[in-house]
């Protein structure tokens, strides 16, 4: 059975009059097992592939290979389906003209599903919200399923739905599907897929070339099958009158969970974190206490719990203690400082690339310069390497950069998709 542990990193000492408390809470899961194997429900996997006209014959062949590779990784007994999408959506496997249904994986079902991929043809446009709406409806036909994951692939922009229509259809999958989104080539919008992935507790990334799709799909499906904890939530209690300023996942990627809060009781909020495997995640919790306490007094500022199926699995306590010792109160906790910089780094990259795309070179230079500075300060070598393909970094320490005149679109997209990936603080 799975087990969780929690550790809190903070400077609990506050200066007289201060009320804001910041802490990094590290939660580690071990013994997660495989999806659907812990007796808490069954697992379902959906493969959602773009078969719009822009894919072309070569792209469709790569899609077929990728979907086949993913099917190879799905454990026997798992519910599954393959959804094909263009400006419409349809179930490629298991096809039943009378009703929507999913199949249970078996050697025979795997072979039949892989054979069905030969029917894919490149035609039509793109309506990703429609694909996800069908997928969410489909997965609800398996009532015993508690763990629902999908891979969504596209090579283009969402041209056949308005942004409002896309958001409305994505909302039908919230709480039903956890979706990892992948874009292939250079003609899709990172921001569009990022919105979908963030709403559905998944990831977004770039597949530069069609021939890389199969390896990526197999890796995504292996990772999903290794998540034996179907769903977990982070619960944050704060005292009467306190305000939870934000709750963010900060490792392995930056995800602001604040807007996903649901009320457990008047003092406690729950934040969904999706399914877990054997892994460790870091969360940044910030609380504003209602008032400063007398010097020397200590107060519990927050109680952070990891909860599975309503049962508390681990707990970390965030404390506050007021002091007039400047040496104590001036200390900046290295974990808090590191992840604050990583969150700002992600924001600076995304804002810099948006400014560059709009022709605002001045803002782009300033934002990407700040990103280069933060990447150097936090030791994020991957971000630095990707930034160097977009800007010439002259002085990392000061953030002095120059925009490159010629930049490959794929290099910009790689920087954008990697912006939220963080490096762990060295402890």
Task: Explain what this protein looks like in three dimensions.
It contains 11 helices and 20 strands. It has helices at residues 56-73, 107-116, 128-139, 163-171, 190-199, 213-225, 326-329, 334-357, 361-378, 381-387, 409-418; strands at residues 3-9, 13-15, 20-30, 42-50, 79-85, 89-93, 103-104, 145-154, 178-184, 204-207, 229-237, 243-251, 255-256, 262-265, 268-276, 279-288, 298-308, 311-323, 391-395, 400-403. It has 427 residues and is an alpha+beta fold. Strands 4, 5, 6, 7, 8, 9 and 10 form a 7-stranded mixed β-sheet that branches. The chain has a 6-stranded mixed β-sheet with strand order 2-18-17-11-15-14. It has a 5-stranded antiparallel β-sheet with strand order 1-3-16-12-13, covered by helices on one side. It is 32% helix and 33% strand. Helix 3 (128-139) runs parallel beside helix 4 and helix 8 (334-357) runs antiparallel to helix 9 (361-378). The protein is globular and about 75 Å long.
């Amino acid at each position: 059975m799975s087990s969780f542990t929690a550790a809190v990193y903070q400077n609990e000492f506050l200066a007289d009059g201060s009320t804001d408390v910041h802490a990094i809470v590290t939660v580690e899961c071990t013994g997660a097992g495989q999806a659907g194997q812990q007796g808490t429900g069954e697992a379902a996997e959906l493969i959602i592939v773009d078969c719009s006209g822009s894919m072309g014959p070569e792209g469709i062949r790569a899609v077929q290979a990728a979907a086949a590779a993913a099917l190879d990784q799905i454990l026997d007994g798992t519910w599954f389906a393959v959804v094909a999408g263009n400006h419409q959506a349809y179930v490629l496997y298991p096809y039943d003209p009378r009703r929507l249904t999913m199949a249970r994986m078996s050697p025979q079902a795997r072979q039949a599903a892989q054979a069905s991929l030969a029917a894919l043809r490149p035609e039509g446009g793109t309506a990703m919200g429609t694909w996800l709406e069908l997928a969410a409806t489909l997965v609800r036909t398996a009532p015993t399923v508690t763990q629902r994951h999908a891979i969504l692939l596209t090579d283009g922009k969402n041209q056949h739905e308005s942004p409002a229509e896309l958001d409305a259809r994505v909302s039908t999958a919230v709480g039903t599907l956890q979706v990892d989104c992948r874009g292939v080539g250079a003609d899709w919008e990172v921001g569009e897929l990022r919105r979908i992935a963030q709403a559905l507790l998944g990831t977004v990334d770039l597949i530069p070339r069609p021939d890389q799709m199969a390896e990526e799909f197999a890796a995504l499906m292996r990772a999903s099958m290794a998540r034996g904890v179907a769903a977990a939530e982070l619960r944050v209690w704060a005292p009467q009158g306190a305000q939870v300023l934000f709750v963010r996942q900060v490792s392995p990627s930056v995800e602001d969970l604040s807007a996903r809060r649901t009320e457990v009781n008047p003092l406690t909020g729950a934040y969904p974190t999706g399914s877990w495997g054997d892994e460790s995640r870091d969360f940044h919790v910030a609380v504003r206490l209602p008032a400063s306490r007398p010097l020397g007094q200590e107060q519990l500022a927050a109680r952070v719990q990891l909860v599975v199926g309503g049962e508390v699995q681990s707990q970390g306590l965030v404390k506050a203690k007021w002091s007039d010792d400047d040496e104590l109160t001036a200390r900046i906790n290295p974990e808090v400082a590191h992840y604050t910089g990583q969150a700002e780094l992600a924001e600076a990259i995304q804002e810099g690339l948006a400014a560059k795309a709009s022709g605002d070179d001045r803002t782009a230079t300033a934002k990407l310069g700040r990103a280069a500075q933060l990447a150097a300060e936090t030791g994020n070598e991957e971000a630095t390497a990707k930034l160097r393909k977009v800007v010439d970094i002259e002085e990392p320490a000061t953030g002095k950069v120059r925009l490159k005149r010629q930049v490959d679109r794929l290099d910009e997209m790689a920087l954008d998709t990697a912006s939220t990936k963080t490096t762990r603080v060295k402890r």
